Amino acid sequence: MISVPLDKKRHDRKRFDCAVPALKNYLQMMANQQSNKDNTRTFVLEDVKNPNFIIGYYTLTMSTLDLSSLPSALQKKHQNANSAGLIARLAVDKRYKKEGFGEWLLIDALKKLLNTSDSVAFPLIVVDAKDGASDFYKKFGFVAFFDEENKLFITVESVRKSFKVSSEHF
Ligand SMILES: CC(C)(COP(=O)(O)OP(=O)(O)OC[C@H]1O[C@@H](n2cnc3c(N)ncnc32)[C@H](O)[C@@H]1OP(=O)(O)O)[C@@H](O)C(=O)NCCC(=O)NCCS
């Protein structure tokens, strides 16, 4: 499996339905425009049998880091940092749910951000978990910010450790 940048000529965005209107609408109406403006990047996982069908997608960008919402040890360690990598959206089409694609997309997004952090350093990866998906992210080591149950983070250091190989190899 491989993720590819969203291509509006190739991918059938209208068919995509993850049952969360905000995430569906973003893919259909915003993702391509936002990428053209260099605001976000969206990657899709294609169905190998029908490559124009989108199994799932994620959108990456950067976010301002609010140190005050972090545990004190992390506040101290990262006091000079001001940015985090952001998984702004991640969704799987309802026809492909519970087959491991959400996990695959999350790992793929983390690999991309880890690779990026080798060139443009940032200490945390943040995710906006919509519609009760925070437990999905907690399964993979994300922790909620103090003040926002649906906004979670993981350190780049722990992502690097969990992949157990240098980010140079991705
Ligand atoms: C959340 C979502 C991405 C999961 O995708 P999926 O392909 O169904 O998930 P997977 O099959 O890869 O599941 C991987 C593991 O996470 C668990 N999981 C899946 N969704 C979960 C949820 N909402 N809460 C807790 N755990 C969840 C699965 O049970 C599985 O655990 P297991 O390995 O112990 O069996 C998908 O349900 C989705 O797109 N939801 C709507 C959009 C959304 O809420 N996106 C996230 C916020 S932006």
Give an overview of the whole structure.
It is a single chain. The protein has a seven-stranded mixed sheet. The protein has 170 residues and is α+β, with helices and mostly antiparallel strands. The protein has five helices and seven strands, in the order βαββαβαβαββα. A hairpin with a 2-residue loop joins β6 (143-145) and β7. 31% of the residues lie in helices and 30% in strands. The chain has one domain (3-169): Gcn5-related N-acetyltransferase (GNAT) (Aminopeptidase, 3-Layer(aba) Sandwich). The site of coenzyme A (COA) has 21 residues, from β4, α3 and α4.
Write the layout of secondary structure elements.
Layout: E1 3-5, H1 21-36, E2 41-47, E3 50-64, H2 72-77, E4 83-92, H3 101-117, E5 124-128, H4 134-138, E6 143-145, E7 148-155, H5 156-163
Parallel strand pairs: 4-5
Antiparallel strand pairs: 1-2, 2-3, 3-4, 5-7, 6-7
Bound molecules: coenzyme A.
Coenzyme A binds at residues 18, 20, 23, 89-92, 97-103, 129-131, 133, 135-136, 139.
CATH topology: Aminopeptidase
Strand share of the residues? Answer: 25-35%
Low-pLDDT residue spans: none
Structural class: alpha+beta
Compose a concise summary of this entry.
The protein has 170 residues and is an alpha+beta fold. It is 31% helix and 30% strand.
